[in-house]
Design a protein that fits this description.
15% strand, alpha/beta, 5-stranded parallel sheet, single chain, 44% helix
């Protein structure tokens, strides 16, 4: 028996998607020369089997595109979840039962968006490196899909972490897609 739409509304966005992106869809995504290729690769992601690493400058639209993917995935009745990496690391560091349950959920969700890897600090700690690497390895072992956003290239991420393991795994399992659009937040304020 399906739920009625009056008392049980259909949720049209993936879990955790920020309020400003709950309506983000391919249909309302504005393209320009700096993001048209990324949009094309994002559309192909839905039917593919590789992960996606969206890289670009601050405000280039990486998070918006990642949320669009999560929402489109969700609309196909597949579970997706969005988390910001710095906040995730903070929550997992507690090490309590609630943190372990969150970790289990993130290891098993069909599509996970990890937003802003590399923003946690300029020099990555052992905890940060180990936690993110173990999460990604577990997801890979299960054949689950992951979308990453970052303003750091894989080589910059490797240098920041002072470790090549995560960047190597990302390079092997993810399509690296660069967005070259300027800072959209600043452009909206100037208009």
């Amino acid at each position: 028996r399906s739920p009625c739409r009056e008392c049980c509304p259909v949720v049209l966005s993936a879990v955790g998607v920020p309020h400003e992106f709950v309506d983000a869809r391919f249909a309302n995504y504005r393209t320009d020369q700096g993001n048209a290729s990324a949009l094309s690769k994002a559309r192909a992601f839905l039917d593919g089997d590789r992960d996606l690493y969206l890289v670009g400058g601050v405000g280039a639209g990486k998070t918006r595109l990642a949320c669009t993917l999560a929402n489109e995935w969700h609309l196909q009745r597949r579970y997706a979840r969005f988390v910001r990496v710095p906040r995730l690391l903070y929550e997992l560091q507690a090490g309590d039962e609630q943190a372990r349950e969150l970790e289990r959920q993130l290891e098993s969700v069909p599509l996970l968006v990890l937003d802003d890897i590399g923003a946690e600090r300029e020099q990555s700690s052992d905890y940060t490196r180990r936690t993110i690497l173990m999460l990604y390895e577990e997801r890979g072992d299960r054949g689950l899909r992951t979308v990453w956003t970052s303003n750091k290239s894989l080589s910059e991420l490797s240098a920041m972490q002072n470790d090549d393991r995560l960047a190597s795994r990302l390079g092997g399992r993810a399509d690296v897609v660069r967005l070259t659009t300027g800072d959209q937040r600043v452009m909206r304020r100037v208009k």
